[in-house]
Amino acid sequence: MAIEIDDPKTEALLFELIQRTGEPLDIAVLIAAQERLARLVMQTSREAMADTSRALPRASSK
After folding, report:
1. Mean pLDDT computed over every residue of the chain
2. pLDDT tens digits, 33-50
3. Which of 2, 10, 30, 51 is found 20 to 30 A from 21 (Cα to Cα)?
4. Domain ranges in the chain?
5. CA distances (Å), 23 to each of 16, 26, 61, in order?
6. What 3-state class would DSSP assign to 8?
7. Coil, strand or helix: which one is 5?
8. Do 23 and 31 meet the contact criterion of CB atoms below 8 Å apart?
9. Half-sphere exposure at residue 53, Cβ-oriented, CA atoms within 13 angstroms
């Protein structure tokens, strides 16, 4: 799948990323996507754990 970036700010961020890391563009985008997805998974897990812990006191008080 080819990706076309038309947003100048996105292009500038990607250029800075590849300059700082020395990685090829496709690798830099791959790693950025993997890291973002990992953060989202962790956030979802933390939210689920918080929901569970909030529900426990109510369930045990009945």
Report:
1. 89
2. 999 999 999 988 887 777
3. 2
4. 8-55
5. 11, 8, 55
6. helix
7. coil
8. yes
9. 6
DSSP state of 23: -
Q: 3-class DSSP state for residue 1?
A: coil
The pTM assigned to this predicted structure is 0.68
Tell me how far apart the alpha carbons of residues 39 and 44 are, in angstroms, rounded to a whole number. Answer: 9
Token digits for 39?
Answer: 């953060």
Long-range contacts of 23-31 (CB under 8 A, 24+ apart): 29/3
Q: Quick one: pLDDT at residue 52?
A: 77
Query: How far is it, in rounded angstroms, from Cα 43 to Cα 47?
Result: 6
Q: Which residue from 30, 28, 35, 34 is spatially nearest to 13, judged by alpha carbons?
A: 28
Q: What percent of the chain has pLDDT over 70?
A: 90
